[in-house]
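FIELD: query
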Amino acid sequence: MRATGKYCKCCEEYKPLTEFHRNRKQPDGYQTYCIDCNKVYKKTGKFPFARQGSC
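FIELD: result
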């Protein structure tokens, strides 16, 4: 049975796999952070919703 979604460690939301970029190096084949969080990171250099010790 294949997973249909994944939990984003940054925004702490469960999202469908279409919301994650592919990453062959990860065990499940998808990035750890969702596309939206990655976009913010690339623009600002910080993850949104970042708390001390989080994302």
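FIELD: remark
Residues 14 and 46 are 21 Å apart (CA to CA).
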